[in-house]
Design brief:
Shape: globular
Strand order of the largest sheet: 1-2-16-3-10-5-6-7-8
Distance between the termini: 27 Å
CATH superfamily of the largest domain: Hypothetical protein, similar to alpha- acetolactate decarboxylase, domain 2
CATH class of the largest domain: Alpha Beta
CATH topology of the largest domain: 60s Ribosomal Protein L30, Chain: A
Number of strands: 16
Helix content: 10-25%
Length: about 280
C-alpha cells in the first residue's frame, strides 16, 4: 500500500521529506545529502545511500561519505565509489574486500553509491548449532525474527526488514568481490560476469547484513544480502555459499528506511525491480 507522494513545501530545507511511501510495515523516507546530518539515528531505522536500481544501471558515483553514514549506524554493507569492492561495517569499523580478496580499512571521506547501515540493537538472539547450509541458516534467522506461534501456519512471505548478524565458525565459504570500474560505467550485470570468486575451507568471523521484503525489489535487494568478515580481518566478501558450524545469531527489526539520494536520482518504484536480474547479480 502506498501513501500519496508529499510535495515539498515552499521554503522547505533539503532535510524535509521529498518522498514518502509505506511498504508493508516499512516507512521509506527519501532525503538529499544535506538533510542527512539533520536526520539523526534512532532505533529501528536504517540509512541507505542510493538505490539498487541505480547501481544496476551503472551509477557507481555517490555523494555520501562513509563518515556521513557512520554517524547513523555501526552495522552495514554495500560498496564503495566506482564499485570498488564489498563493504562491511562491523561494530562501527568500516572495511572493504577488494577483488583480489584482500581486506583493508576504509577512510571516512570515501564516498559510496550504495550502502545501508543501522545502529544495531538486537531484539532477539540465539545460539545455533550446525551444520547449517546458507538456506538452512536463512530459515533459522527467519524463525528468530518471527517465531511461529502454536497452530500458526508457516508464512512463505517475509514482509519485514531485519538487520542480521551471525558470529561463529564457518566452513565451505564461497565469496566474491568486484574490481573498481572506470567511466563509461558498464551495467552491474556486465561487471558481475567478471567478478572474482574464491572459496575458504573454514574461517571464524561474522556474517552481517539485512533481509528486505520482496516489495522493496529495486530499492534494495529482496531477501537476504550478507557479507562476511573474518576475525583476523584477512578474508571477507559477498556471501554466495556458506555452512555454519556453530555460532551466535542476532536480529533487529527495522521499521524505517531513510534513503539518501544524489542529485538527479529518484526513489523509483519500490517493488518494480527485475527480480531475475537481481538474483543473477546477487548469485542467488
Amino acid at each position: 500500500m502506498a501513501e500519496r507522494v508529499q510535495d515539498t513545501p515552499v521554503g522547505a530545507t533539503a532535510a524535509d521529506i521529498i518522498d514518502h511511501r509505506l511498504i508493508g510495515a516499512l516507512h521509506v523516507r527519501a532525503l538529499r545529502r544535506s538533510g542527512l546530518a539533520h536526520d539523526r539515528a534512532t532505533e529501528n531505522t536504517a540509512f541507505q545511500a542510493g538505490t539498487l536500481d541505480a547501481l544496476m544501471g551503472g551509477r557507481y558515483d555517490g555523494d555520501v561519505t562513509i563518515g556521513d553514514l557512520l554517524v547513523h549506524g555501526n552495522h552495514g554493507i554495500g560498496t564503495l565509489q566506482h564499485l570498488d569492492g564489498e563493504l562491511v561495517v562491523l561494530d562501527g569499523e568500516c572495511w572493504v574486500v577488494d577483488a583480489n580478496g584482500s581486506v583493508r580499512r576504509v577512510a571516512p571521506e570515501t564516498r559510496t553509491p550504495f550502502a545501508v547501515l543501522c545502529q544495531f540493537v538486537p531484539t532477539a538472539s540465539t545460539r545455533l548449532s550446525g551444520p547449517l547450509t546458507l538456506d538452512a541458516l536463512h530459515g533459522a534467522l527467519d524463525a528468530l525474527a518471527a517465531p511461529q506461534k502454536p497452530g500458526e501456519a508457516e508464512s512463505s512471505e517475509r514482509d519485514s526488514v531485519e538487520a542480521v548478524r551471525v558470529d561463529g565458525e564457518f566452513t565451505d565459504l564461497k565469496l566474491r568481490s568486484v574490481a573498481a570500474q572506470t567511466p563509461p560505467y558498464p551495467p552491474l550485470s556486465e561487471v558481475t560476469k567478471h567478478q572474482t570468486e574464491w572459496t575458504l575451507p573454514g574461517a571464524t568471523g561474522t556474517l552481517i547484513g539485512f533481509r528486505f521484503p520482496d516489495a522493496t525489489a529495486g530499492l534494495e535487494v529482496p531477501g537476504y544480502h550478507l557479507h562476511f568478515l573474518a576475525d583476523d580481518r584477512r578474508h571477507g566478501g559477498h556471501v554466495l555459499e556458506v555452512t555454519l558450524v556453530r555460532g551466535d545469531a542476532a536480529v533487529e527489526g527495522v521499521g524505517e528506511l531513510h534513503v539518501v539520494l544524489p542529485p538527479g536520482l529518484g526513489l523509483g518504484v519500490p517493488g518494480a525491480g527485475d527480480r531475475d536480474a537481481i538474483r543473477r547479480i546477487e548469485g542467488a
